[in-house]
TrEMBL record:
UniProt protein name: Uncharacterized protein
Pfam families (alphabetical): Glyco_trans_4_4, Glycos_transf_1
Domain Glycosyl transferase family: 213-369
Membrane-spanning intervals of the chain: none
GO terms, molecular function: glycosyltransferase activity
SUPFAM superfamilies per the UniProt record, alphabetical: UDP-Glycosyltransferase/glycogen phosphorylase
One GO term (biological process): carbohydrate derivative metabolic process
Gene3D superfamilies: Glycogen Phosphorylase B
Length: 394
């Protein structure tokens, strides 16, 4: 069947109308992965391709948080039972995987996509186990070791790399089953090693702002779900060192998830009057245009889309130099500052410097607005188009 697809695309040329299917847990969620997917779908549809989005769970009437083009066809496999919490369901993990593989195979057989793409979440990562002979692509939207950052130190030696490979044996087996496996950064591709099917393609900027933010509000903004990954507690501690020097400045943390822990910490630090905690907003550009600096305090990232979004609005950024993404997006000292993960004093010093110097803010904001062009949608999606067409021709 792959040969049939390849002959078809060769016969029709580069303008072949591809049928694409994206698999993920829930397309109605409000995370960065879902935002990236909605943007990709819009681009593919604009190019005339047919796009299907397959959620593993039934959204039960929920609309997508991010807008999808009307041409996108949404499906669900009705597998919400495999995500039940509790020990009993954990013990059924193998049967849950088989349930996904069987359901996905039935869907693939019915709809016959040219390329099926897994967002590599807990169950959709098992897409290569399906029997249908379409091209299969994996997209990794987080760093190799995620929160287990100590594993990267272990990989500095040959023996450590062997142990890490053994530890990630199941993932390596899954990755080997894909026709292509795509990481978001070159740093992460290198961490996986010299795999024949691995490549890296960054996320594209979510939007283009023709004008830059005025940068006159003295508001520092942070965006993201309140999880331990984002380490907003460290950002608040850094802010407690900055706020007394800038009584007219505010820190705004925006994103889904309860924030009672952050409210209590802000109260203990005596900075609650200079901290605003808001739920997720749909108008991300609007929120960024009101700010003057973007802060990212994460312990780890897959790519840190929020950096691209802030730079698109002309905001200078102060970012934790975590794996992976920030160092491939931010040019330290030119369009922002990179600080070591967990360096609260370093984060505070960089924020203080930008808040204290309007001319520096403006220069870095201009550089950010200029430099983010290399992540334009056209540039990034052209790489995806070339990858997919290459697979179909192979």
């Amino acid at each position: 069947m792959l040969r049939q697809y390849g002959l078809r695309i060769l016969a029709q040329g580069r303008r072949h109308r591809m049928k694409l299917a994206y698999f993920l847990k829930d397309a109605t969620a409000s995370g960065g992965m879902e935002r990236v997917l909605s943007n990709k779908c819009a681009w593919w549809c604009a190019q005339g391709h047919e796009v299907h989005v397959v959620s593993l769970v039934d959204p039960q009437g929920r609309e997508p948080f991010f807008p999808f083009p009307a041409q996108v066809r949404h499906h669900n496999l009705g597998l919400q039972r495999i995500y039940r919490k509790g020990l009993a369901n954990k013990l059924r993990k193998g049967r849950n995987v088989e349930a996904f593989v069987a359901a996905a195979d039935r869907w693939l057989t019915q709809f016959q996509p040219d390329i099926a793409i897994s967002m590599f979440d807990e169950y959709s990562r098992h897409l290569p186990r399906t029997r249908h002979a379409c091209c299969k692509v994996g997209e990794l939207h987080f760093a190799k070791h995620k929160s287990a950052q100590h594993m990267y130190r272990l990989e500095r030696t040959a023996a450590g790399r062997a142990l890490c490979r053994l530890y990630k044996h199941a993932d390596y087996r899954l990755i080997g089953g894909y026709d292509a496996f795509v990481t978001l950064t070159a740093q992460d591709a290198e961490a996986w090693g010299r795999l024949p099917n691995i490549t890296s393609i960054p996320n594209a900027a979510s939007f283009v702002c023709p004008t830059r933010a005025p940068l006159d509000s003295k508001q520092v903004i942070a965006l993201g779900r309140n999880t331990r990954q984002k380490r907003f507690d460290r950002l608040l501690k850094a802010w407690s060192r900055v706020a007394p020097r800038h009584p007219d400045a505010t820190l705004r943390i925006v994103g889904p998830g309860g924030k009672d822990d952050l409210r209590r910490l802000a109260h203990r630090l005596g900075i609650e009057s200079q901290v605003t905690l808001d739920d997720a907003v749909r108008d991300v550009p609007g929120a960024l245009m009101q700010a003057s600096v973007l802060a990212l305090s994460s312990q780890y990232e897959g790519f840190a889309m929020v950096l691209l979004e802030a730079m698109s609005c002309g905001l200078p950024v102060v970012a934790s130099d975590c794996r992976s993404g920030p160092a491939e997006i931010v040019t330290h000292g030119e369009d922002g500052f990179l600080v070591a993960p967990g360096d609260i004093e370093g984060m505070a010093a960089a924020l203080d410097r930008l808040l204290s110097d309007p001319s520096l803010r403006d220069a870095m904001g201009a550089a950010a607005h200029r430099n983010v062009a290399r992540f334009s949608e056209q540039a990034v999606m052209a790489r995806w188009q070339a990858l997919f067409e290459g697979l179909l021709r192979a």
